[in-house]
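chain below, 126 aa
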Amino acid sequence: MLEHTKKVALETDFDKRVLYSEEINTNDMWNNHLFQKKLQFGKDLGVRMYNAFKEGFEEGYKKIVIIGSDLIELESKDIIEAINKLDFSDIVIGPAQDGGYYLLGMKAIPENLFKKQKNGGTKYCF
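prediction:
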């Protein structure tokens, strides 16, 4: 799956970033000259995604698309289409067959994208 994700990413002309969960591996399959490498931070997936978007926008990116690394059906045209659709939409979502999503793109983080629930969990608002 990772080889497929890498191949698809390399077929685009966009900046590419790999987010690591525990430590950055500088000697892995993700070429250091082609992929930016950063650590994820946050206690759950929602917080980690929020932080990835926030960091990217703070660095000056105007459109950001996040994809997973377990998507064998993903094609580079899916990423390109998502980036292009952000010209006309604030958020793009690639729906997955399991009810989740395989791609999330934004050109800004909506104010209430994540809301804390009374039980302390995170409610995803997309």
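Residues 112 and 125 are 7 Å apart (CA to CA). Strands lie at 17-20, 36-39, 64-67, 91-95, 101-106, 114-116, 122-124.
thats it, cya
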